[in-house]
Amino acid sequence: MIERAEWAGRVVQMDHPLIRHKLSILRDVRTGAKDFRELVKELAMLMAFEATRDFQLAQTIVATPITETTTHVLAGKKVAVIPILRAGLGMVDGILELMPAARVGHVGLYRDPETLEPVEYYCKLPEDIGEREVMIVDPMLATGGSASAAVEFLRARGARSIKLLVLIAAPEGIERVLADCEDVTIYACAVDDHLNDHGYIVPGLGDAGDRLFGTK
Ligand code: PRP
Ligand code: URA
Question: Is the pTM of this model over 0.85?
């Protein structure tokens, strides 16, 4: 894994053994769409566990069958999960299993294969997006163009507190998001080596959308 001092505090790399194990199977070219989907969902759930570590708690009193006790419940902002279509959809269900009350917004972007620049085709967000903890989810952070554009759309529509959850990041994508987007923390299961001439992450896992939906 690549670690850089200047990323400190803005990039969280998740190296839990379960995550590393599942990511290895996900990368494997022999993994079919059914298992791929299941792994993306599980990885998203594990990531959400870490990405919610800073959520606020409030004290409460609960009566157990034995006695009353002081304990804690979530008390901070509510959550909005925002998948970048298409591949981000694969991460939504895993997060909703942990946080069933979260709202889901959608940002539709595809990467122009020639220019590698993101093209927007859809955006539908919860009305109170400005009051929510926003988690943008997308398995791949390659050039960073899609993620940076998604953050820009969300900011323009009032979003304030934004985290970006990706399974695999390229150093180039991290640099771009950190440069373009203030106050965004990136959570990644792995930071890979580089991008190839077609903008694919190396070693990566290939095209996440095609592998999720079996379109190639
Ligand atoms: C993939 C991926 C990201 C984007 C990353 O989506 O899911 O959204 O590429 O690349 P970038 O960091 O260089 O912008 P793609 O454009 O292939 O669309 P899809 O999800 O519809 O397949
Ligand atoms: N999008 C993908 O799906 N995979 C990559 O490696 C880069 C962008």
Answer: yes
